[in-house]
Amino acid sequence: MFYPFLRPLLFRLEPETAHELALGAIARTPPALLRFLSSSGERFPEAIRRFGLEFSNPVGLAAGFDKNGVAAPSLAALGFGFIELGTVTRQAQEGNPRPRIFRLPRDRALINRAGFNNDGAAALASRLARARPSCVVGINIGKSRVVPLEEATEDYLASLEIVHPHADYIAVNVSSPNTPGLRALQQADLLAALLEALQERNRQLSQARPKPLLVKIAPDLGDEDLAMIVSVVQRVGIAGIIATNTTTRRDLLVRTPRETLAAIGEGGLSGAPLKALSNSVIAKIHLLTRGAVPVIGVGGIFNAEDAWDKISAGASLVQVYTGLVYEGIGIVRRINRGLVEIMRREGFRSLDQAVGCRASEWSAFRACDHGQVN
Ligand SMILES: Cc1cc2nc3c(=O)[nH]c(=O)nc-3n(C[C@H](O)[C@H](O)[C@H](O)COP(=O)(O)O)c2cc1C
């Protein structure tokens, strides 16, 4: 409603400063007012059950937007069915030097090399102990930068223990391109060892049923690596896969000048150019598992059609980050409303029926499919 006026002002500021301002403003606004401003009072026509949890709608906030949980109750009031906080690490850390977030408005994209700047897992846990959001809460954990890869498991285990009581689900991030070596944890043996250890501790910490443990993967995996990850996930009993994190590719950008990219340097690319690539990963997982492993689809969602594409590729929940930056808080309500209309148009009575209905089409990724090329 008011974002078309606000966005040019925010976009004049350095991206991370704009983010801090926006997040601070959301955190300070009473949840009831945010519910009113974003008209998030409407209900999605069906409650959605995934990995033993009930979601009021399928649209979630992706990790990285509120790493420290400073605005969690207010973000829930924007109408999200779930919010994923973090990535947090066992040790508080500053992340990479600023500037580390860059806008690419011509491609409706962002590049970031934040590097897990966060207050530490314990700070997030104590914030959540004081104020619990009204929707499903996922907590995303990563490796502390100073910890060598060989000691990663102990580091993740420590974070798991700290956040466990406060999370409805826990996401294991092995896919950020901004922590050196992290993506190596996606290799079969390392991933199996890490996930098995986390799953075992998860069982010990949980009284009745273990909390759902999910793994977040990169979009830059070969088909063999993806198949191997899926088989590890199924063997270890991981509850779901979050697909995908940002890409290190730059060839998906068609409008941003090469000199601009060269000046920005390294980092993960998100937003419209990532959409078709992440859809293909989602579709491949859906086909490999015959829909048996729930996928949270993320990457380049700006509207209900984009969310529908993810669902038809095989996602049973979706998340947004870059879309929120470009479209404002009304995006959550617009996607939910639009999804209901699309489901009706396409003749589906429930979301579950639609999951993966076009997986075969989406599994064949063509570089020219991405958001900006029509
Ligand atoms: C500035 C920024 C910071 C991010 N930080 C994290 C993070 O800490 N942990 C994580 O798992 N993903 C992080 N992400 C990735 C997003 O959660 C998401 O997977 C990715 O941006 C693709 O979705 P999008 O196109 O809707 O942005 C970050 C993305 C951005 C743009």
Automatic annotation (TrEMBL):
Indicate the enzyme's highest-level EC class: oxidoreductase
PROSITE patterns (alphabetical) = DHODEHASE_1, DHODEHASE_2
Q: How does it sit in the membrane?
A: Peripheral membrane protein
Documented EC number(s): 1.3.5.2
Output the InterPro entries linked to this UniProt entry: Aldolase_TIM, DHO_dehydrogenase, Dihydroorotate_DH_2, Dihydroorotate_DH_cat, Dihydroorotate_DH_CS
On whether Oxidoreductase is a keyword of this UniProt record, the answer is yes
Q: Which residues bind FMN?
A: 63-67, 87, 140, 173, 216, 244, 271, 300, 321-322
Q: Which UniProt keywords apply?
A: Cell membrane, Flavoprotein, FMN, Membrane, Oxidoreductase, Pyrimidine biosynthesis
From the UniProt record, give the pathway where this protein acts.
Pyrimidine metabolism; UMP biosynthesis via de novo pathway; orotate from (S)-dihydroorotate (quinone route): step 1/1
Q: Which GO CC annotations does the UniProt entry carry? A: cytoplasm; plasma membrane
- Residues bound to substrate are 67, 173, 178, 245-246
Catalysed reaction(s) here are: (S)-dihydroorotate + a quinone = orotate + a quinol
BP GO annotations:
'de novo' pyrimidine nucleobase biosynthetic process; 'de novo' UMP biosynthetic process
Localization (cell): Cell membrane; Membrane
Q: Which residues form the active site?
A: 176 (nucleophile)
Cofactor(s) demanded: FMN
Work out whether the entry's keyword set contains Kinase: no
- State the HAMAP family in the record: DHO_dh_type2 (MF_00225)
Q: What family, per the record?
A: Belongs to the dihydroorotate dehydrogenase family. Type 2 subfamily.
Alphabetical list of PANTHER family matching this protein: DIHYDROOROTATE DEHYDROGENASE (QUINONE), MITOCHONDRIAL, DIHYDROOROTATE DEHYDROGENASE (QUINONE), MITOCHONDRIAL-RELATED
- Main function: Catalyzes the conversion of dihydroorotate to orotate with quinone as electron acceptor.
Description of how the protein assembles with itself and partners: Monomer.
Q: How is this protein named in the record?
A: Dihydroorotate dehydrogenase (quinone)
